[in-house]
C-alpha cells in the first residue's frame, strides 16, 4: 500500500444481483483492483461462514466483502469489521455486543458475522454478513435476528451501507495507527467477559471464564484458576 495515500473503503462499489459468495468474488478480483474496493450482492447462492459452514443469504440482507491490502496480514482485521457493524447498529438505536471473535449479537441473538480470508501479504477480504431486512430461515430463528425484526420496520439499505462504510473507514484507520485503541474498544464491546464460555476447537472442548481480550486479539480464559490464551483461528465460542 502507498503509505502517503489514505485508503477509502467504498471508493469503488461493485453491486451484483447474485453471486456464489461475495468473498469468493472478491478473492477472484483482488489482485487487479485497488484497496478499498467493495463487492455487494443482493443474494448469495453459496454464502459461507467459517470452516465450511453456510451463511443464509436471501434478498434483503447486506452481504458484502471489502478488499484490503494491508502491509502485513493481521488476524485482528476481523475486529475492524466487527466494530464497524457494532457502531452501525448503535447508529440505528440498537445495543450490539461482540461475541468474540467474529459475531455480533443483539438481544441474545446473532445479527451479523464476519469472515476474513486472504492471501498472506497480498490482500485480505473482509466479508460482512448483516441481517437487515431479510427473512431468517426457520431453522435459525432461535439463534438469529434481523434489524427489521428488532426495529419493527424495514430499514433503508443505502443508509445502512453508508453508515457501515463510514465506520469501516474510521476503524481501519485506527487499526493502522493505534491497534491498541481498537482493541480497547473491542474489549468494551465484548459482552462475554466475566461469563463462562465453552470453546470448541476441532475435538477439543475447553470450559472456562472469559477474562479478557488481549491486544493481540486472543481471548484469555480462566480454567479452574489456570489462565490460558485462546488464539482465534477457527475456534467456536458457545455460551453454555
Ligand atoms: C460467520 O461464520 O459468522 C461469518 C459469516 C460471514 C458472512 C459474509 S456474507 C458476505 C461474505 N460472503 C460470504 O460468503 N460470507 C461473508 P460462523 O462463525 O462460522 O457462523 C456460521 C453460523 O452462523 C452458521 O453455522 C449458522 O448457525 C449461523 N448463520 C447462518 N446464516 C446466518 C444468518 N443469516 N444470520 C445469523 N446466523 C446465521
TrEMBL record:
Q: Which residues form the BPL/LPL catalytic domain?
A: 1-176
InterPro entries per UniProt: aa-tRNA-synth_II/BPL/LPL (IPR045864), Biotin_CoA_COase_ligase (IPR004408), BPL_C (IPR003142), BPL_LPL_catalytic (IPR004143), Transcriptional_repressor_C (IPR008988)
Q: Which GO terms describe its molecular function?
A: ATP binding; biotin--[biotin carboxyl-carrier protein] ligase activity
One GO location term (cellular component): cytoplasm
Superkingdom as given in the UniProt entry: Archaea
Q: List the keywords (alphabetical).
A: ATP-binding, Ligase, Nucleotide-binding
Identify the NCBIfam families for this entry.
Answer: birA_ligase (TIGR00121), PRK08330.1 (NF006206)
Name-wise, this protein is: Biotin--[acetyl-CoA-carboxylase] ligase
Organism expressing this protein natively: Thermococcus radiotolerans
Amino acid at each position: 500500500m502507498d503509505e502517503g495515500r489514505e485508503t477509502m473503503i467504498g471508493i469503488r462499489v461493485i453491486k451484483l444481483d447474485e453471486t456464489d459468495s461475495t468473498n469468493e468474488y472478491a478473492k477472484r478480483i483482488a489482485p487487479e483492483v485497488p484497496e478499498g474496493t467493495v463487492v455487494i450482492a443482493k443474494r448469495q447462492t453459496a454464502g459461507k461462514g467459517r470452516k465450511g459452514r453456510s451463511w443464509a443469504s436471501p434478498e434483503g440482507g447486506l452481504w458484502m466483502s471489502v478488499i484490503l491490502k494491508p502491509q502485513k496480514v493481521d488476524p485482528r482485521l476481523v475486529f475492524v469489521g466487527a466494530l464497524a457493524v457494532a457502531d452501525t447498529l448503535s447508529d440505528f438505536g440498537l445495543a450490539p455486543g461482540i461475541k468474540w471473535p467474529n459475531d455480533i449479537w443483539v438481544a441474545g441473538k446473532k445479527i451479523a458475522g464476519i469472515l476474513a480470508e486472504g492471501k498472506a501479504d497480498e490482500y485480505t477480504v473482509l466479508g460482512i454478513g448483516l441481517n437487515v431486512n431479510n427473512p431468517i430461515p426457520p431453522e435459525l430463528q432461535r439463534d438469529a435476528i434481523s434489524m427489521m425484526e428488532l426495529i419493527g420496520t424495514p430499514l433503508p439499505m443505502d443508509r445502512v451501507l453508508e453508515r457501515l462504510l463510514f465506520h469501516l473507514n474510521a476503524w481501519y484507520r485506527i487499526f493502522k495507527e493505534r491497534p491498541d485503541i481498537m482493541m480497547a474498544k473491542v474489549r468494551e464491546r465484548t459482552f462475554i467477559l466475566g461469563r463462562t464460555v465453552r470453546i470448541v476447537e476441532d475435538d477439543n472442548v475447553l470450559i472456562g471464564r472469559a477474562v479478557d481480550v488481549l491486544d493481540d486479539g486472543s481471548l484469555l480464559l480462566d480454567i479452574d484458576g489456570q489462565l490460558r490464551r485462546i488464539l482465534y483461528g477457527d475456534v467456536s465460542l458457545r455460551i453454555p
